[in-house]
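tool=predict chain=A
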Amino acid sequence: MQTRPLSDRTFDEEAQGSDQQNCPDCGGRVTKTEHETVCDDCGLVLDASPIDHGPDWRNFEDGTENKSRTGAPVTQTRHDRGLSTEIGSRRDANGNTLSGRKQRQMSRLRMRHSRAQFSSKRERNLATACTEIARLVSALELTQELRERASTLFRKAQKADLLKGRSIEALAAGSVYGACRTDGLLRTIEEIADVARCDRGKVLLGYRVLNTELGIASRPISPGDILPRLFTELDVSPAVRSRAADLAQCAREEGLVSGRSPSGVAAGCLYLASEEHGGGFRQEAIAEVANVTPVTLRARYQELQERSESSSPI
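tool=predict ok
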């Protein structure tokens, strides 16, 4: 089978393409297949499917434009977005043990690589923050998706120069708390402060800076979001759980939550529900689990009780 070079073809023949009915050389019949157009008489190939020398596009991520298969996906949880290099120490890629001379060479390469992996102090601070966020997420048993959002939030804070005069640990803890508030996941400031490397005031300051400067889309916490944690800690019966949930919903509709701590309202709802079902819980025990004072619990309890006895029962 012969193929005529492209240089020997005329422009008219190229323009005709696959619509050519007769062979331009011998006038024979032309057959079209899926891959080529060829003359049945002389074997001249008129047209063939071109070979694609580009990459094999394949993408498992939604909303991304880069579809090339070049390794692990890009992540925000590492300062280099996951595009890092690791140098081994004792074995090569095939699992063979390296010689002493080669191990010393790899040790020197690892030392130089560790010194050169940060191009600036800004990048070093980002690596420290990503490590701190990973530690907090692991200690709080949160998801990998939330870790991604917290790391992205810290990157935005660093880009907006919010780190000046503030500690990396405070903004990292504030980023984790902000990601929890954005997802509607209930984690209190105290829970994050218990595992963070800064106190409660620093964590709250970090979150307030992020919320003020970046405008985090976080929804307010309602007493109904806090009640499940109280139920689990105190082993509440199903009847008391149902009544406390109804009280929390009605208190929100009646406007008893505005200007008050959600934890205090949730504690008051639980205590009132337990009193209606025969008691069983002390005010101090509920207040300790809800992280409020007994005075706050009694104040919310009295408000709920007065509203339930009024003309608009709860």
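The chain has a mean pLDDT of 81. The longest strand covers residues 36-39.
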